[in-house]
Amino acid sequence: MFSPFDLSGLLFTYCESTSTELVVWGDILPSNVGGLRFSPLISSMVKIPIHIKGMIIGLILSDASIIFAHPKVQNSRLTFQQSLIHFKYFWHVYTKLSHYCKSIPYFSNRVLKGKSFYILGLATRSLPCFTELRNLFYLKGIKVIPYQIFELLTPVALAHWICGDGTFSHGGLLLCTDSFTIPECVH
User: Fold this and answer.
1) How far is residue 108's CA from residue 181's CA, in Å, rounded to a whole number?
2) Residue 141 · residue 126 · CB < 8 Å
3) Rounded CA gap, 171 and 110, in Å?
4) From start to end of 75-143, where are the E strands?
5) 106-132: buried (b, 16+ CB within 10 Å) or exposed (e) per residue?
6) What are the structural domains, with CATH classification, of the chain?
7) pLDDT digits (tens, 9 = 90+) for 41-65
8) Tens of pLDDT along 64-121?
9) How far separated are the first and last CA of the chain, in Å rounded?
10) Which of 16, 21, 77, 167 has the CA that lies 20 to 30 A from 2?
11) pTM to 2 decimals?
């Protein structure tokens, strides 16, 4: 169904089914860190390739949030934080998402249960593609598991969910789903 073709050194993929969009494909998405503000037209044209979307789905199910920067902004952005001890994983995620970021990661200190932690964080640009994901994963401002989770939960998404909220326990894998309700976890 997909027919790749080369355009100015970048590999694009055109989906022949119902879409007429050109989507940059692969690991060659250039960083937009420090770039100019996107116009509304450019913002509306930014799409998330399927392999990056899987990663983002896994991040949302674990430690990432999709928020509005402030009440007057119409599009949302993805934010993600990790403890400094998980630097390698954080950097892997940042390099994949830097195309959607306007600034470099930030470094901060957080106190949790009386203990101080150093964290790294990133925030993407506010874009319609993140607002679409927010509409799937948030109901009245609360993160939920969407009903179409079986369509969204790819092996890549599951891997990132495990990296964020998974642990090995008693010879098996345990996914921490404390922030979701029991009916959400069951369906």
Assistant:
1) 30
2) no
3) 32
4) 77-83, 106-112, 115-123, 138-139, 142-143
5) eeeeeeeeeeeeebbebbbbbbebbbe
6) 47-186 (3.10.28.10)
7) 888 888 898 889 999 999 998 889 9
8) 999 998 888 899 999 999 999 999 999 999 999 998 998 999 999 989 899 998 999 9
9) 31
10) 77
11) 0.76
